[in-house]
Amino acid sequence: MNNCLLCGNQIRIPIHFTNLFGATTESWLCTLCRSGFLSVEGERNERREVIFKWNEQAENFVDRYLKMQDDELAKCFCAEVRKKVRPKLDYLALTDATKQILIAASVPYVTLDELSKQTKIGVFLMQVTEETKLSRLERVSSKIVHVLSLFEEEANDE
Predict the structure, then answer these.
(1) Which of 80, 98, 109, 149 is the most exposed place for a label (fewest CB within 10 A)?
(2) Do 36 and 67 contact (CB within 8 A), yes or no?
(3) Model confidence over 44-73: pLDDT tens digits?
């Protein structure tokens, strides 16, 4: 049994026939913690996709992962990230934090130094607001065909 990476409680993995023959379940969060992450449903864009809405649970995750440098948390969303990446694309990791998540999810990635070899790339971001970093990288924008963000912050009503 594993312990939840956020709350520390034991994770009970139900025994299924499919798990008996080598298929492992990627359970790094308990059901209570997992349910706190709200999936972005319905809203799809050809070029841009978001996995989770920004909420208190997302803020807790980002604080622990980035500010407290809890690198184990990179494993939490492997399955969700893998489902959303596009096949035959390498994903640009702008930060070490996003690179660790891509490595944990076994998603091919490139760094800015390796971009000259790539004709089409995807970009993986922790938060949608990081897209402003992309606009500053002129040589990158023409190669981007997919932007995948882990969290989408709520729009400010100002």
Answers:
(1) 80
(2) no
(3) 677 889 999 999 999 999 998 988 888 889
